[in-house]
């Protein structure tokens, strides 16, 4: 049976304990064994028949100790081991000569091996020793000295030098006197005590190393030693006019420790309420050790399905970090599928089918099978086949997007300004080359205003370059007064040819006249098939003009190398010479 398992047993088994009456350091040990003879007795608090330290036994107790042991409460204890060494530091011949802290030994003449030779300082039990003298301790005493020798059967008390917490040795007294109610430890005289430390809920109003008054943590009554409103536990500042340091607040209040600790009902911006080691506290939003979020500057508590109670939700990050979409982290960069909106990562899913975006209205990449369509500054994700009616598919760097045509286009292809059809307010499709499939859209006025184009009202309506078709060399062209398309000006001092559809170096002589740079056929003549000259407007069935026929007839009967007295002028349009017959 171990000493820390002392159990009182009724019976006659000498190895069992009858009485657990020895209390050492708060633990009970056996003080008498179940033996009516001299077989067993307690040694080091345990029933045994061994005689190594207990040389004589009677009725279950030791009557004489031996060697480096001593008697205490019916048993012999060796100084070599606990619990004996916690009471006596030196023993010989069964007698303790030097007590451990908390104990004292009777005077030398009152000690022997057959009596208890060590006594607790704080026990008021009267112990009979040699010579039938009696000694006792002092209530609440923790350290003491041996009193003057006893002279009769009246018990003498130890001289107390230190008391347990809450008591002090009054000057001129060997007894322990209770401290003021608020004190945990104190010092003082018979008439007055001063606290050295305070009970829970109070702080010492004194500078370091000195005693003073214990003040309630929430009190403001002491001018020089202020407490903290609604504080339940605190420590002293040890400095006058400096509030105590609150360590725990009253019920329904949270301890906030930024700057001077205070007790609040609302933690305020940058903090969240929680319980740390049973203490309600306001914890900084960024304090990860207590459930905060790294780099979080502002936060709140919200119900959480992932942990008991409420979870911290960050509402604003610090240090330039980005708030995650779930508001549970502060990130260096926003994750895929989100965009940065003033350091807040927001999901791109506000745009249906969008996988990457730069804002809530601008998608930069769609999910597989879709392309980005941009219209009026906003984007959407559509099927490629749906990119029409004023939009075109643009391919660049291996990706496709749906872009808006130029505002004048009804439809376009390849680029915004490459119109394939035009709107009603700009109805003319202007092509740079006749063979082009696309162009720009313009009005009739813009088409013909000072440039080399004219309008063609056939379907589809077009704005054609003057150089196209028959208007070779024209700088400007347009409708004539008769309604036909005609050349209006030529460059490089050239003249508008007779048919008004091109430019020539000079007007054909004899058959045309020049008027304001325009070649006009003379009366009776009309533009030739190529438009560059004039021919008689009366042609025979063979297709030759009357003048040509006359020329041929005369040539057949007249020798034109011989001058005649009468003459007939023959106009040769090719040689421009006159012959006379």
TrEMBL record:
SMART domains: FU. It holds the Pfam family VSP. Transmembrane segments: none annotated. It comes from the Eukaryota. PANTHER family: CABRIOLET.-RELATED (PTHR23275), EGF-LIKE DOMAIN-CONTAINING PROTEIN (PTHR23275:SF100). This is Variant-specific surface protein. It comes from Giardia intestinalis. The lineage of its organism: Eukaryota, Metamonada, Diplomonadida, Hexamitidae, Giardiinae.
